[in-house]
Amino acid sequence: MDIISQHIVLTILTVLIAAAIGLILRRLLVGRLKKTVLDNWLVQTLGVIIVFVPLILSVPVVFVILDNNLFGVLWAAIQAQIHVKDIIPISLNLVQTALIIALGVGIARTLVALAVRGMGENRVDINIRTLVRRIFYIIILTFIVFWVLSIWNIPITIPVTAIGIMTVALTVAIQDILKDLVAGFYILMERPFHIGDQITIGDMVIRTGRVEDVQIRSTKLRLVSGEEVAIPNALVFGSVVTNNTFYGERRATIIVKLPEEDFAREETPGKILKSLKEIDLILVKPEPTISVSGLSEKHIALAVRFWIARGQHSVVTETLYALRAALPHADLTIQEAAGDI
Description:
By secondary structure, the chain is α+β, with helices and mostly antiparallel strands. The chain has helices at 3-33, 40-66, 70-81, 84-121, 126-151, 157-173, 175-190, 233-238, 267-277, 314-326, and strands at 198-201, 207-214, 218-223, 228-232, 241-243, 249-259, 289-295, 299-309, 331-337. Helix content is 58%, strand content 18%. The protein has 3 domains: 3-150, no CATH class; 181-243, Roll (SH3 type barrels), CATH 2.30.30; 249-337, CATH 3.30.70.600. A 5-stranded antiparallel β-sheet has the order 4-3-2-1-5. It has a 4-stranded antiparallel β-sheet with strand order 7-8-6-9, covered by helices on one side.
């Protein structure tokens, strides 16, 4: 094997060994960091960086293997073609910018996760956690942006002035979005409802669903019919909002319509109350009530009101069957379904 072939083989082996060392170091580093509190983004970024370290260190070795004077010749050729003094600072700035952005996003995600976890352990409201997470993340990213600007020697007054001009111009153009933003902060701070609650929004057009997320611009609901809808926060803020799951109990109302000859003033309410007491899931407090809701020449209507625990909607159906057994000639109608909507 001639000298050139030996140099090529040694160069390939050097690069492969450097790559193998980098991959081994990455595996060890990522495996160790995944057991820590660091965000996966930051872990993977550090893993990529550690792979390039052996490869960069192998470059001088490759030049030595190929030719001791090769590096000098290549460097002279590069200097003859381009202005190296201008390229090197730009390249270093690009590398620093990429590293700061990658590491900054990972650090931001890690710190936000730690802050949210700490608030969760202290049972801080989920809306407050959501708000703090987003504000904290924006602050860290803003710091990263100004750090990148300082690397490129861009005066801070330039972006600040540009932001001021853009703010004035955009304020008029995005009034509706700004309303949504302000309403979003109000919802997150005042907490009229929480993520996971079932709410009803609207006056004319009514939408009922479970709150999936409260974002800065919109509130996402999973409707009872299964669709997901994003409602602008300004609409939520300006509409009547009913929190269907705020309290632990819900009232149901069944209208019992009886022929006049089957109604006894004392006995009929007693039969109804007895039937209700036999159903275990009907709450004892507040007590069930019976009142006359309508009178006609041939019929008497009674409003039977009782309370059930939140989510126990099947109790209403069970009550209908029990009342049908006690009053076989009655017409039964559900007036309030206790949230079964």
